[in-house]
Amino acid sequence: MAVKNHVKLVTTLVIMVLGMFAFGFALVPIYNTLCKTLGINGKTNATAIAYDATHAKISKNRDVWVEFVATNNGGVPWAFYPKTKKLKVHPGEMATLAFYAENKTNHRMTVQAIPSVTPGIAAKYLKKTECFCFTQQTLGGHEAMDMPLLFHLDTNLPTNVKTITLAYTLFDVTDRVTH
Amino acid sequence: MSHALAHGNEHEAHGPEQGKGVIGFIKRWLFTTNHKDIGTLYLWLAMFSFFVAGGMALVIRAELFQPGHRFVDPNFFNQMTTMHGLIMLFGVVMPAFTGMANWQIPMMIGAPDMALPRLNNWSFWILPFAFALLGSTLFQSGGGPNFGWTMYAPLSTKFAPPSTDFMIFAIHMMGISSIMGSINIIATILNMRAPGMTLMKMPVFVWSWLVTAFLLIAIMPVLAGAVTMMLADRHFGTSFFEAAGGGDPILFQHIFWFFGHPEVYVLVLPAFGVISEVIPTFSRKPIFGYHFMVYAIISIAVLSFIVWVHHMFTTGVPLGAELFFMYTTMLIAVPTGIKVFNWVATMFKGAMTFETPMLFAVAFVFLFTIGGFTGLMLALVPADYQYQDTYFVVGHFHYVLVPGVIFSLMAATYYWLPKWTGHMYNECLGKWHFWLSVISVNIAFFPMHFLGLAGMPRRIPDYALQFTNFNMISSIGAFIFGFSQLLFLYNVVATVRKGKKVDGRVWEGSHGLEWTLSSPPPYHSFVTPPDIL
Question: B338 and B291 in contact (C-beta within 8 Å)?
Fold first, then answer.
């Protein structure tokens, strides 16, 4: 009787162990989904959101500063900076600017820019129509380009947000691409 | 009692199978499935690791005695902090308590042995290999893991030395070992209790281990998952924690602390159990509020799953989440407070005597509470922004782990060693060990709070000049504490070899099934179930 008891109990416990192992991995999509739906980790949309200029609602009486920051991760040897440091926009209004990128090495490199918004809560109100961060960017040695960014702020942006910082970090993904 | 003693004599002959010579000795310990033998193996492993990881702590304190890079290079310093943490957690506290569980649980619930003896053998014998693997990293090219025991990505993925893979597999093995150990403990407690030993009659130590074992089953697989993702990021081109590939390094912290916070209670709940055995014995009163003690353990365990973000307040989590995790963290102080008050109430108006185990237990109650209070300070979000990653945090968790958990292990060893060996330890030496430890532990760790409040960051091999005095004091305390533990080692070895014979009760106020057996107890504890009153 005792042995049978053990088998049943141990089976239950082993299933719990396997379940928790799976749960550890399930935390990855849970985390991503939660962050995306609640808009809490400063991630912006990864694909274009259309902007209809004729029907757009614009809060003319409200100004929000948007600041731009560019960082190279782990000393990626590129020149990378926003051509405009700071913009004053009305929520709902389309803004356009460019980031300058130059590959300072002698060889071809591919990079990926990862955006992050501070305060995090503003991330889901910052809507990009075009962004160089949507795709990977490749430049030959010593090539340079201006990378476009088109965005607008949602008019529902909480009123306590007066300044938004949009930061891009440039990661070298050359190795990942060639594989 | 005479009933149980009769069984003891009857089974004296059924001792361990002892072959001849070295081979016989190795086979006896390698193949043993006896709960007492395996308990002993666990405890000696913990003792060994304690001095290894303690030696690493002394390397750290020697480097920090004065500012400047004087003693070891910064990379080696970082390897020392990482290994000290990993070995103290997985190599000292967890095996020591598993060893205690192996020795005590069958005796406390009136069972002949653990439920799954072969699994028990396997759980132990994985560990020496796991630690050999972990220790080998220090001798590999590029050095050992140097990113702290918390293994934050990307330090542990992109910027880590090659030996990190060995650490990952060592952690997998330790995880498997402690999961199997936990399954065994749960099966023993749920299926092997003597008739009449209902759940609410079990000693608090057994309860604490039942809850701890469930915690381990819930969290060790999550840690295994986290390090597996690390391994995949390092070698298989995934991007779980790599922002460039769409992952998020903060995610690692969430997964790690989902394991890491309940892990804290894995370390401390059995300590609560030990203290709940020792204090009643030397107060000559039953534990005050037994039911509340049990409920407090369970509620601490449940709450421990919803507080993990308090380790990450400064990572930019939303305000609502900060508030939620601040309140849940502070809520844990309620069941913990119940336990502390109940220990004090147990001592209140008791006929107290202060043998070495009791001294360690009283010091535990007092000093653990200090660690608990600094924990409350850290739980406050606005204050935590100041304390995060400073020596204040180091002071806090060393107060809960050294004069907390390690003292409870000392108390347990002095308390049960006469039962296990049949010999009384040297009380005078025990008292010397206690007083040296309790004074030096405060010299070592109390100044860390001041250093942290003054802004000294943790995990650095060098510091600004104004921190010198407190660091010197702390290092002196650490060295006194470290060398005092040699008294403990000597006392344990001497007691195992010879000493004044003790009877079954050992202590005048002892209460519980294990004390109805002879000292040392028969090889198989209760072959026929004892009568439970």
Answer: no
Closest Cα partner for A18 from B59, B487, B222?
Answer: B222
Select from B287, B54, B285, B247 the least CA-distant residue to B153. B247
CA distance B153 to chain A (A): 14
Contact B166, B142 (CB under 8 A): no
Stretch B219-233: mean pLDDT: 96
- Distance of residue A80 Cα from the nearest chain B Cα, in angstroms: 16
What is the rounded distance in angstroms from the CA atom of residue B275 to the CA atom of residue B270?
9
For B377-389, what is each residue's pLDDT tens digit?
A: 999 999 999 999 9
The secondary structure of A107-168 as a DSSP string is S-EEEEEEEEEESGGGGGGEEEEEEGGGS-EEE-TT-EEEEEEEEEE-TT--TT--EEEEEE
The HSE-up count of residue B364 (CA atoms within 13 Å, CB side) is 30
- Amino acid (one-letter) located at B497: R
Q: CB of B229 within 8 Å of any CB in chain A?
A: yes
Chain B CB within 8 Å of residue A7 CB = no
Enumerate the residues of chain B whose CB falls inside 8 A of the CB of residue A14: 183
The burial of B460, by beta-carbon neighbours within 10 Å (0-12 exposed, 13-18 middle, 19 or more buried), is given as middle
Instruction: Say whether B219 and A120 touch across the interface (CB within 8 A).
Output: no
CA torsion sign, B396 to B397 to B398 to B401?
positive
Q: Give CA–CA dist B440/B444, Å, rounded.
A: 6
Return the higher-pLDDT residue of B18 and B327: B327
Quote the minimal CA–CA distance from B222 to chain A in Å.
5
Closest to B370 measured CA to CA, from B345, B324, B328, B407: B407
Q: What is the maximum alpha-carbon separation in chain B?
A: 72
Selecting from A24, A73, A171 the residue whose C-beta is nearest the C-beta of B255 gives A24
Q: Which amino acid is at B192?
A: M
ipTM score here? Answer: 0.89
Q: B99 with B157: CB under 8 angstroms?
A: no
For residue B14, what pLDDT band results from cuts at 50, 70 and 90?
low
What would the 3-class secondary structure string for B395-434 be?
A: HHHHHHHHHHHHHHHHHHHHHHHHHHHCEECCHHHHHHHH
| Under 8 Å between Cβ of A68 and A86 | yes
Of the candidates B191, B243, B255, the beta carbon closest to that of A171 is on B243
Are B39 and B100 a contacting pair, CB within 8 Å? Answer: yes
Q: What is the band of B1 on the pLDDT scale with cuts at 50, 70, 90? A: very low
Query: Buried b / exposed e across B381-412, counting CB within 10 Å, b at 16+?
Result: beebeebbebbbbbbbbbbbbbbbbbbbbbbb
pLDDT, tens digit, for every residue of B245-286? 778 899 999 999 999 999 999 999 999 999 999 999 999 999
Phi, psi of B77, rounded to the nearest 5 degrees: -55, -45
A38 SS3 class: helix
Return d(Cα B340, Cα B293) in angstroms, integer.
10
Tokens 């990942």 — which residue? A176
**pLDDT for residue B496 is more than 50:** yes
Nearest CA in chain B to A14: B183
Peptide bond into B106 cis (omega under 30): no
A12 CB within 8 Å of a chain B CB:
no
The span from the CA of B246 to the CA of A42, in Å, is 13
- Residue B529 gets the label, from left (phi > 0), alpha (psi -120 to 50) or beta, of beta
Q: pLDDT, tens digit, for every residue of B27-83?
A: 889 999 999 999 999 999 999 999 999 999 999 999 999 998 889 999 999 999 999
